[in-house]
Amino acid sequence: MAEDRAWMYNGWSRNGRHSDEWVAKTKDFVDHVFALSLTGTVRCPCRRHENSIFLNKERVSLDLCQFGFMPGYEVWEHHGEVVPNRNVEEEENNDWAGDDAMHEMLDSLRPELNLSSEDPATPEVSRFFKLLKDSEEPLHEHTDVSILAFVTRLMAIKSKYFFSNNCYNEILKLLGDVLPKPNKLPKDMYQSKTIIKGLGMDYEKIDVCKNNCMLFMKEHAEEKKCLKCGQSRFVEVVNDEGEKVMTDVAHKQLRYLPLTPRVKRMFLSKKTAMHMRWHKEGVRDNDDLIVHPSDGDAWKALDTFDPEFAADPRNVRIGLATDGFTPFGQMASSYSCWPVFVIPYNLPPSLCMKYEFIFLCLIIPGPDYPGKNLNVMLKPLIEELKELWKGVEAYDVFTKQIFKLRVAYLWSVHDFMAYAIFTGWSTHGRLTCPYCGSDTDCFCLAHGGKITYFDCHRRWLPRKHPFRSDKKNFIKNTVVTKGPPKRLNAAEIYAQLNNLVLNEKGDKYEGFGVDHNWTHICGLWELPYMSSLILVHNIDVMHQESNVAEALIHTCMHFDKTKDNLKARRDLAMLCDRPTQVLNDNGRPPRALFCLTSKDKIEVMRWMKKIKFPDGYAAGLKRAVNLKTGKLTGLKSHDFHILMERIIPVMFRGYMPDAM
């Protein structure tokens, strides 16, 4: 780039009062690029379009005046300029980052480590200097590739394609035999980790009580036994003399990946640091639509609580998500592991949910699910979130400034089962719904024995809605007059939690199952801004859709897991006025209007077998159809999502009466 193009951003104003220099040079830019165009259109480089569409000269001029130039477009590579020192086609076909990118990354780390200080070098700084040495030393005398560039590239491939440590070691052994001698190739995974340790992305191992009662950290770091249950911290073995001997191996270890260095790293890449401001400075195509979490009331409520936090667009809002999985496969072992992920929401909609920007923060060990002791495992993260709310010093490579970085928890996202142990509200029993609480109309089925919310939703209808007085199509002879339950805000929930009292045994809160369903108090309530949040926790819709879609399909197609069974028909006779659907004299139920006949079911399944979808949209749906057995098997959550949203409204059309 031959000239300084700071005028592109310094001279533009949101209120239209652009500087004379900006107006003149923008006009020259537009005239120049359209003089090169053969079609009369060019890519529009404004903040709204970001070179994504081609427009004519008048539209480009108007958009640049209204929205300004897109961020970071000092080199006009889409308008005739060649990017210096870069072959675009070669870069697209070659993933090798090269030493230039490595040195740029290391230069970005210098301000964060405060290398200009005259104080003695800290261990972190010493590791960084070792990193610099490895970045300058070639792998062997016949190459310009440095040790650090090689190791980081190979580690990235390992992470991308999920090969094991043993596979990684074998690859290094093969390369060691092939490369010329002498070379400085690391021997194994351990030496590779030692080389990149200076990047400062370490993790901590924290010993955990065998029963998940406590963490052996901080003031309890030297304890040998759990202070609550008395279990030994370490594994005990029997020696040759038959005596029990305590080893130095802990029963369980929590892996904690500190959040602070990972959030600070997002501001050490110029492109990412620029995107971290999008939530406040990004241009929306339609202001009436919610296209980003920052457009919602939950985001704005936190801004209202602390305007100083909201003033700096670099301050980060995060979400938490966790769920259990079996790392060794369903059939190999019953071991259950619970990872906790952190999602930063500052990024644009196209990036904020990409896996590259989702941090693994905690790995909660098994073999069993943690239950309400999940709260114990979250303690390191909660303590760090308290410090991040106060602020930590970070370096922004985009503005080349050291600033005070603050991070706030915004909400969590779980399925309904993980919601229970994360929030502390049990999702079992009569008070399952966390919004209705004790003001619920749910009841237990006399024959089915399950809690049902049948006919509990008419109370949300307008006062004069005809359904409220309908005595036939809902629970018979029932008129609904009361309104919806009051929804508690975060401050009211916090007050309710503060009033909980343990019973005499100390295992439950008084009134559990009658007045409330609280099993424990989530540690996130220790955050000073928690009471200001209006959407503390979220339910993962896709998990719920899969449950509902499965019940609908199995019932309508009368599969093994149908909800239309003898117990349901007996409950139907008690609750509803539907004489044609009750059991006949032989004790057998007539076919329900919503159930397909055997002939219709075969036709529907053959249609599903032939239906075509775009690549990657619902690839597993056709494979799930088994015409021999007449069943659907192996459906995943995404398949149920597609069925619920797109297929079910069409697949049963014509086979059921319009009004039932």
Which structural class do you get from the secondary structure elements? Answer: alpha+beta
> Which residue ranges are poorly predicted, with pLDDT under 50 across at least 5 consecutive positions?
85-100
**What does the main sheet amount to?**
7 strands, mixed
How far is it from the N-terminal to the C-terminal residue, by CA?
Answer: 71 Å
Total of DSSP H or I helical runs spanning 4+ residues? 23
Overall shape: it is: globular
Percentage of residues in helical conformation: 25-40%
Number of strands: 17
Annotation keywords:
single chain; 660 residues; alpha+beta; 5 domains; seven-stranded mixed sheet; 23 helices; 11% strand; globular
Summarize the structure in words.
This protein is of the alpha+beta class and 660 residues long. It has five domains: 7-91, no CATH class; 95-199, no CATH class; 204-253, no CATH class; 257-421, no CATH class; 547-651, no CATH class. Helix content is 35%, strand content 11%. The protein has 23 helices and 17 strands. It has helices at residues 7-10, 20-36, 57-67, 88-93, 98-113, 123-136, 147-161, 165-178, 189-196, 259-265, 270-275, 278-281, 297-305, 307-311, 374-377, 379-390, 416-423, 490-498, 541-556, 566-575, 598-610, 619-624, 637-651, and strands spanning 42-43, 54-55, 204-208, 234-238, 244-250, 252-256, 316-322, 338-344, 359-364, 392-396, 401-405, 407-414, 443-444, 451-452, 537-539, 625-626, 631-632. The strands form six sheets. The protein has a seven-stranded mixed β-sheet with strand order 3-6-9-8-7-12-15. A hairpin with a 4-residue loop joins strand 10 (392-396) and strand 11. Helix 2 runs antiparallel to helix 3 (57-67) and helix 19 (541-556) packs across helix 23 (637-651). The longest helix is centred in the first third of the chain and has 17 residues, at 20-36. The N and C termini lie far apart (71 Å). The model is unreliable at 85-100 (pLDDT under 50).
